[in-house]
Amino acid sequence: MIEVAERTRPPSVAGKVMAILDAFADGGVRLTLSEICRRAGLPPATGHRLVGELTAGDFLERAPDGTYHVGTRLWRIGTRAGAVTGLRELALPHMEDLYEATHDNVQLAVLRDGSALYLERLRGTRSVPIVTHVGSALPLHATGVGKVLLAFAPEREREAVLAAGLPALTPRTITDPERLRRCLAEVRRDGYAVTRDEMTIGAASVAAPVRAADGTVVAALSLVARTRSADLRRLLPPLTTAARALSRDVAVHWRGDAAARRDSA
Amino acid sequence: MIEVAERTRPPSVAGKVMAILDAFADGGVRLTLSEICRRAGLPPATGHRLVGELTAGDFLERAPDGTYHVGTRLWRIGTRAGAVTGLRELALPHMEDLYEATHDNVQLAVLRDGSALYLERLRGTRSVPIVTHVGSALPLHATGVGKVLLAFAPEREREAVLAAGLPALTPRTITDPERLRRCLAEVRRDGYAVTRDEMTIGAASVAAPVRAADGTVVAALSLVARTRSADLRRLLPPLTTAARALSRDVAVHWRGDAAARRDSA
């Protein structure tokens, strides 16, 4: 993937369009025109013209207060993403079963650009409030799904994440690389990961790998519950059962996308 | 919204980029370069160059077989769509409750561009297989959610849909405008809609409106079950209960997006 900032030539119009849309990937849901231009690195006149075109095409929408947000048309195109939709569709029934058995938050994430990218999340009216939403990217070292994805990633990728630094999200986050390496070795040995207050104070999680036909870990499934009341040993059997059932479905139905994923990784 | 085809001037580069991405909105998940160019109405050289830029930016991804699909980056930006994400997040706990009470398909849809656009769908391992997925747009006159959205739409919008024709999806689809008008009057009177085999043979649905603070219907919630075994009278109480609970949440938390929706409609 080519980052806009790494380009030596000035960005093309297509590059500017992508930069404008990218401004919404990590930011607030609503942005003003000047925020969009600043994030995209575009002069106001160019930004104004292109944002106008994107709004006319329903890729962006303009709220009555003058701010912009991602439009329904762009959302709809995004739902066609092969690598996401295929896995999500396979996972949903298993995630439903897991939700029903536990009533905790149920999450599905993949490793993408050095983060845990959340493809789906189910939560109930009684689940502990958590920071993730669908499309969130969270640190690998501080989340249950992240530890699973990191533990089973190629060593080079794992060491690159460790070398990039392990910021403390809470006082309980594992920030020592050697301690994290030992923790990840345990995840590989045990086949699951556990976190307690490491991403959010008050939230604990258990996570398990989802494997493709060749054994490659393609995703992680997790349950997030209240640290105080969660009996993680009780959560583990339904979680690993659902992760294995999903792995069987992935092995049968998801070869093409798994290949695409490895190809693009 | 300005359709590309309606423009009198040749499309700008931003317009071409949108046309390429739009090629994936209604088509297959995977498209060849020539399919993309044909759908976007672009000469091969232009299409090749822009698809290459979009692939380098991870807006599109290229599979090992040379086909393209929507990239994870574009999916992620799409998840930030204000009008969709806000409503979906509010609806999900209520949809979970509904799934748990019934084990049938649970769907959330809004009226968009004369179709029922499905924002979310939960389904279990035992639910009846249906044609919708998240991001699908289905005919209003043949679906439960569609009948609700159409019944409570402004009369001008409703008559425009009826005037555009009512194609038969199955032999049971209501194709007579006068009969559909009577059916929609019943939906307004009863506060719910029913379909039996009208979109897919074997599938029946009940649907109820989701209202904003001012009473405007902003979405529809539905249950889809097997026609043969579904007792729709049994499904109605949990459905209308969940739709009312979601309406209360929407009334409190969703004013901004409701305003944006009306503004853009």
Automatic annotation (TrEMBL), chains A, B:
Gene3D superfamilies reported in the protein's UniProt record: 3.30.450.40, Winged helix-like DNA-binding domain superfamily/Winged helix DNA-binding domain
Molecular functions per Gene Ontology: DNA binding; DNA-binding transcription factor activity
SUPFAM superfamilies referenced in this protein's UniProt entry, alphabetically: GAF domain-like (SSF55781), Winged helix' DNA-binding domain (SSF46785)
Domain IclR-ED: 73-252
Source taxon at top rank: Bacteria
Domain HTH iclR-type: 11-72
GO term, biological process aspect, one: negative regulation of DNA-templated transcription
Keywords associated with the record: DNA-binding, Transcription, Transcription regulation
Name of one Pfam family that matches: HTH_IclR
Protein name: DNA-binding IclR family transcriptional regulator
